[in-house]
Amino acid sequence: MNGSPVLVSTRDELQTTLAMVSAHGDRVGFVPTMGALHEGHASLMRVARERAGIVVASVFVNPLQFGAGEDLDRYPRTLDLDLKVCEQEGVDIVFAPSVEEVYPSWPAQPSVTVEPGPLGTVLEGKVRPGHFRGVLTVVAKLFGLVRPDVAVFGQKDYQQLVLIRQLVADLCLPVEIVGAETLREPDGLALSSRNRYLDVDQRAEATVLHRALLRAQEAASYGAEAALDAARAELGAAPSVELDYLVVTAPDLGGLPAELEPGTEARMLVAARLGATRLIDNCALTLGRPLTLGGQS
Ligand code: PAF
């Protein structure tokens, strides 16, 4: 399809439009979003476009994934601008439902939800209890409505990506999950809809997260502890950045094995607060053998 995306806000409209556009048997690619779209989302749409003839994006600020006292009310809602981004990226259908359309019983909680299991209670899940239950519930619902062949999520929300892969595997959902590279500002800050909350000083300080990850990557050839120390040293130089967590773990977030072979692939994840704003970031690490006390590896 060419031109402006078709904007639909109800499940019925979505079904009718999908039936029309997918009549030719094209693969359907899906990019779920909460709106406030930026270049990072645009890149997800491009990845979906490479893999599918029809691209659907959803714009829905999902109340179920926000905890009490989080930024649900002030989360930016910019549908007109979002539609422009979708048009530029050649998205075919934008699904922008109301809360009641997705959760008919709202404000009563839905009675059936998707529990993320143990991985949903660590890292982001520990700081934001119930967050991943909300994410997985809405993603499962959106998959049921859009029935995509392929869905694209950013690697920036790394724990979310791992959990969505688990959701698809455990519930046997027939959708391929693609994790797309994190897009960054020229100074390294990962693109995020929440960056707009930062004031000028916080914005300048926020780059420390990326620098910490770079230091960790450099030090990783000396092992996980060396990578953590290097990242901590960098973060320590930015006193107004309040660290929530900094970990090195296996790429599936299952922890590191006790005995590591040189060349083991791992992931570093970091979360920190700048004033009222929480930022997260992560990177791949290739771990080498730690230095022993005598300096020999
Ligand atoms: O990553 C997001 O923007 C949201 O968590 C998602 C996947 C759209 C679910 O609301």
Descriptive report:
This protein is α/β, with parallel strands linked by helices. It folds into 2 domains: 6-180, 3-Layer(aba) Sandwich (Rossmann fold); 193-289, Pantoate--beta-alanine Ligase, Chain: A,domain 2. It has 10 helices and 9 strands. The longest helix is centred in the middle third of the chain and has 16 residues, at 131-146. It is globular. It starts with 5 loop residues before the first strand and ends in a 10-residue tail after the last strand. Bound molecules: pantoate. The site of pantoate has 10 residues, from strand 2 and helix 6.
The largest sheet has its strands arranged as 1-4-3-2-5-6
CATH hierarchy class name of the largest domain: Alpha Beta
The SSE string, one letter per element, is: EHEHEHEHHHEHEHHHEEE
Question: Which small-molecule ligands are present, each listed once?
Answer: pantoate
> How many domains?
2
Share of β-strand residues: 15-25%
Fraction of residues in helices?
Answer: 25-40%
End-to-end Cα distance: 58 Å
Q: What name goes with the CATH superfamily of the largest domain?
A: HUPs
- From the alpha carbons, calculate the radius of gyration and give it in angstroms: 20 Å
Largest sheet: 6 strands, parallel
Q: What CATH architecture label of the largest domain applies?
A: 3-Layer(aba) Sandwich
Task: State the CATH topology of the largest domain.
Answer: Rossmann fold
Spans of at least 5 consecutive residues with low confidence = none
The number of E-state strands comes to 9
Silhouette: globular
Helix vs. strand class: alpha/beta
Query: Residue-averaged pLDDT, rounded?
Result: 95
